[in-house]
Design a protein that fits this description.
The chain has 13 helices and 11 strands. The chain is of the alpha+beta class and 371 residues long. A 6-stranded antiparallel β-sheet has the order 2-1-11-10-9-8, with helices on both faces. It has a 3-stranded antiparallel β-sheet with strand order 3-5-4. Strands 6-7 form a two-stranded antiparallel ribbon. Helix 2 packs antiparallel against helix 13, helix 3 runs parallel beside helix 7 and helix 3 packs across helix 8. The radius of gyration is 26 Å and the shape is globular.
């Protein structure tokens, strides 16, 4: 065999090996290309509103402008999954995250629901089972009875909300879990509604305990990523736990996406994000409710107040029932995600107002009739 032939044969072999490697690479590329990518919604679809709807929104904005103390920062209205109207005012901006205050509670509830769906948690699980190291020396029988569901429904048995003691600006309390567990439980859990932001913090702590992640990190791939919610910010407690009941910042459209997810009973782009069963309970009337900072037994005598209020319609799992067969996530100073199933609509508002009932009344008076 000549040297020339050997070189020629070697060249052919190398060429065949190269071609084979190239074919394998092509096959691999094809497999990679065929692999379905997770669908992410960056922006909600927009639709041109009717003349009647546009006129109603103009009248709403005039009323807002003429109403003392009605400092609305943004409003977005969705109908059948489409943005029909969007407006930013004052401090509002489409690209600037807004403080949500207690709307954060609904996101903590979603995290709890996901943990339940994944088998990491149960509504009947006892609070004391998660934090034995933080319990008082002689825990009361009522404390031992508190369940995850009691925390979700703001009926853990506290007579007053303990949250103010850690948020008064002068508090030296850094062990929030221990403080909550030492707070007197005067009522049988599940029987007495008391708006309780620190109770939501305990839910966030539970999520972190059973998942090994903060609530924010746990929600990141399960909620924020598929909905296209970018770089959410959530404040931490001195214990390194997301505050749960407050401290989350999102853009108006991010809030609208979550409202639409709840309206669609937990499905997004055909994929199940949260179980339909949990959303039904979360958005339903689980316990009798009254406004934060008040007591039901002090208000029961005045039925007229209850008839005209959206704070006496019942409470679910970190969500309020509304008039007009709606339910809502609700935050201090006028932050709302309002879901209206019978209208197939979602209304989101960010604001800085003191009279939140007046803010809702304007939505019912001007926007509801044209949905």
């Amino acid at each position: 065999m000549t040297v020339k032939f050997k070189l020629s044969l070697m060249g052919c072999i190398l060429l065949m090996l190269f071609a084979g490697c190239k074919n394998q690479a092509n096959t691999k590329d094809q497999k990679t290309k065929k692999k379905p990518k997770e669908e992410v919604t960056i922006n909600l679809p927009r639709k041109q509103p009717s003349e009647k709807f546009s006129h109603a929104m103009e009248e709403y904005l005039k009323a807002v402008k003429n109403m003392d103390g009605m400092d609305i920062h943004s409003i977005m209205v969705l109908k059948k999954g489409n943005v029909m109207y969007e407006k930013w005012m004052g401090e509002g901006s489409p690209n600037k995250p807004h403080v949500l205050w207690s709307v954060s509670k609904t996101f903590t509830s979603i995290a709890v629901g996901m943990a339940i769906d994944e088998g990491k948690l149960n509504l009947k699980d006892k609070l004391v089972s998660f934090f034995p190291e933080d319990l008082p020396e002689n825990p009361s029988e009522y404390l031992k009875e508190i369940t995850v569901r009691d925390l979700l429904t703001m009926s853990c048995g506290h007579d007053t909300d303990p949250t103010g003691s850690i948020l008064n600006g002068k508090s030296e309390i850094t062990q929030w879990k221990k403080y909550f567990l030492a707070y007197p439980v005067k009522h049988k859990p599940g029987t007495f509604f008391c708006y309780n932001t620190l109770g939501t913090y305990m839910l966030s702590a539970i999520v972190q305990k059973v998942t090994g992640m903060t609530t924010l990190d746990y929600l990141a791939p399960r909620l924020f990523l598929p909905l296209g919610i970018e770089k959410p910010k959530w404040e931490l407690s001195p214990e390194g736990i997301n505050c749960g009941g407050f401290g989350l910042y999102l853009k108006t459209e991010d809030m609208a996406k979550v409202g639409q997810l709840l309206l669609q009973k937990g499905k997004w782009n055909g994929e199940r994000i949260l179980s339909k069963k949990y959303i039904k309970a979360m958005s339903g009337n689980q316990v009798k409710s009254c406004p934060a900072g008040t007591r039901q037994d002090e208000i029961d005598k005045n039925s007229r107040i209850q008839e005209n209020s959206d704070w006496f319609r019942g409470y679910g799992y970190q969500m309020w029932q509304c008039r007009h067969d709606a339910f809502r996530a609700d935050g201090m100073l006028g932050q709302y995600i309002i879901v209206l199933p019978k209208k197939d609509a979602v209304i989101v508002v960010t604001a800085n107002v003191n009279d939140m009932q007046k803010e809702l009344n304007m939505i019912w008076d001007y926007i509801l009739p044209v949905l």
